[in-house]
What we know:
binds flavin mononucleotide; 7 helices; alpha/beta; Rossmann fold; 40% helix
Amino acid sequence: MTTINIILGSSRKTSLGKNLLNYLKLNQQKYEKEDQINLNFIEIGEYHLPFFYEAVPPMQNKNRSLPERQQKWLDDMQKADGYVFLTPEYNHSFPAVLKNAIDYLADQISGKVVQTITYANNSRGGQFGGIELNAVLFRLNAFIIPQNVAIGNVQDNFNQNGSILDGAKSGDYYQDKLNQTIKKISFYAKLLKNNPF
Ligand SMILES: Cc1cc2nc3c(=O)[nH]c(=O)nc-3n(C[C@H](O)[C@H](O)[C@H](O)COP(=O)(O)O)c2cc1C
């Protein structure tokens, strides 16, 4: 079975991104059935990773021995065939907590497909964060789906449980966008998994 990790890149307790993560969780069974995948939800803050400190860059270090939390993060990423990074824009980039976690990666996402979804509490949808994140994922040899998916004004469209708010102007539009995004990442993850280079 093809596994897609959906990774929330904000560690704030009151993260607006949780509304979107919860929307995807609410639809988990539907996606898994329709797209023949497993979805695995990850909140980056739950690993409580320390600031990266290793003496040797991960990709040059074949004999790595790591504490449990760092190893769990790497194992969780290794197990997946594709990734959706759900990230806000912080000061025109993406959150430091996500960059720190990514710096622990060696080849876990190499040759696998990635989709970035950005979001914000305003109409621009956090696109600068996506541009910067994609540049980092490119360096880690991921196949990046070129078009960033941007969700603006999350608070006006999704509630904390992930449901579409009553009367939300862009609710249907974003719902459709997210559903198509899961379909697309599932398609490419299966394609690459079944056709290794
Ligand atoms: C440290 C910080 C920096 C931010 N920088 C930007 C920014 O550059 N552009 C933007 O559109 N929104 C920015 N925002 C607003 C975010 O879009 C909004 O707070 C959103 O809820 C953040 O996602 P989160 O709640 O999941 O952490 C920033 C928010 C924070 C906390």
